Structure formats: structure tokens, C-alpha cells
Amino acid sequence: MTIEVLKTDGTSSGRSVTLPDELFSIEPNDHALYMAVKYYMANQRQGTHKSKEKSEVSGSTRKLHRQKGTGGSRKGSIKNPLFRGGGRIFGPKPRDYSFRLNKKVRDLAYRSALTYKAKDQAVAVVEDFTLEQHKTRPYYAILTNLGVAGSRSILVVDQPDTHLLRASRNIEGHQVVRASQLNTYQILNCRKLLFTETALRQLAQRSASNSQPS
């Protein structure tokens, strides 16, 4: 698939690049996408949830009243979960939600996500650029020229500089991501995917090296 390279003012540069078929033109695998997203979101969970059970609640251990003869039910502890202020029955405990996912499945999901974006024409390539200052307004003007301002978008670069990172961090819904750190969840969660020329070449080289037999 061939796509034109845009300038930062939104016009065509007169050049075009070819999107690697091994990244943008494969047969998508929906189950691999599901597993990759589940893998990412599970690894984001802290798992620090905790509630106190009967043995952990502070309170007296005195028996509330004698066992028989009161006409009421038996009550052994004020910490009983049935009483207000008592412990919780089968409450949550700290746990690790992360799990392992085969590297080939993650790679397949990554390429499937890029393929879906390419089919939806949600991929654009912009020529390499740098910012002279870390102001948000000039960078937002670039996003406006490229037609992605105000929507969830990602700019994939090879090596973000300080000015670019600082100028982009106040823009809601927009991210600047290094090519080596782009993941499947980020690709699926954005509406527009912007690549710089260098970042696209870096992805193509990494894909070619991974496809070589060991």
C-alpha cells in the first residue's frame, strides 16, 4: 500500500512511501487482538484492593448474650459480617492479575491492529520535523493542519525530543509515542495514527529482523 507523505502544514510533499505488507496488509486475527488487549489491561491493574474480614475487624470478642433462653438467634461476636461494622464475607484480597502471552500472539495482534487502521484509512505519514520551542499552540496548529486536532490520535516518532514531549502533554486525547513502545491497545484506542518517515522505517526494519529465521 502506497501513501503520500504530508508536510506539517497539511499539504502533500510530493513524495510517497510504501507501507510494509507484513505490517499493514496481513489477514487480521480478532482473537489475537482480544488476547493482546486483555493482556495489556490486566497488566495495568494494581490488584491492591482489600477489605477486612471477620478476623481483621477491630472489636470486642465478648459473646453478646447467652446461648439459650433469650428467644433470639445465637450471636457470638460483634464482628459478625451480618452486623453493621462487622467484617465482609469473602471480600477482595490483593492479587496479581497479570498473565503471560506468547510473543508470536502479541506480534500477530500488533500487525492485525495496524492492518485494520490501514484498511480504515486511519494511517498517515508526515515528514520528520522538530519544534523550536516547547509551546503547545504551534504543535496544536500542526495537528490542526493534519486534521487530527480534537480527536484521539497518536504521533509515532523514532526519538521524541524534549520540546515535542512538553508541547504535546497538555493536548487531550493526543499522545506522542516512540516507535519501539507502540502497543496494540494504543493502536486500537486511537482514531488516527500518524507516523514520521523515520519512525515508519524503524518499524519496517524491526519487522524485517523479526521475520528472519533464527
Structural features, described:
This protein is α/β, with parallel strands linked by helices. The chain folds into 2 domains: 159 residues, Ribosomal protein L4/L1 (Ribosomal Protein L4, Chain: A), CATH 3.40.1370.10; 41 residues, no CATH class. It is 35% helix and 14% strand. The chain is built from 7 helices and 6 strands. The chain has a 6-stranded mixed beta sheet. Strand 1 and strand 2 form a beta hairpin. Helix 2 packs across helix 3 and helix 4 packs across helix 5. The mean pLDDT is 91.
Descriptors:
14% strand, single chain, 2 domains, 6 strands, alpha/beta, Ribosomal Protein L4, Chain: A, elongated, six-stranded mixed beta sheet, 214 residues
The DSSP helix count reads 7
Percent of residues in helical segments? Answer: 25-40%
Q: What is the alpha-carbon Rg in Å?
A: 27 Å
Largest sheet: 6 strands, mixed
Order of helices and strands: EEHHHEHEHEHEH
Q: What's the CATH class of the largest domain, please?
A: Alpha Beta
Strand coverage percent: 5-15%
What is the number of domains?
Answer: 2
Low-confidence stretches: none
Would you tell me which CATH topology of the largest domain applies? Ribosomal Protein L4, Chain: A
* Terminal-residue CA separation: 28 Å
Q: What CATH architecture of the largest domain do you see?
A: 3-Layer(aba) Sandwich
- Average residue pLDDT: 91
Task: Kindly state the number of beta strands.
Answer: 6
User: How would you sum up the global shape?
Assistant: elongated
Strand order of the biggest β-sheet: 2-1-3-6-4-5
Structural class: alpha/beta
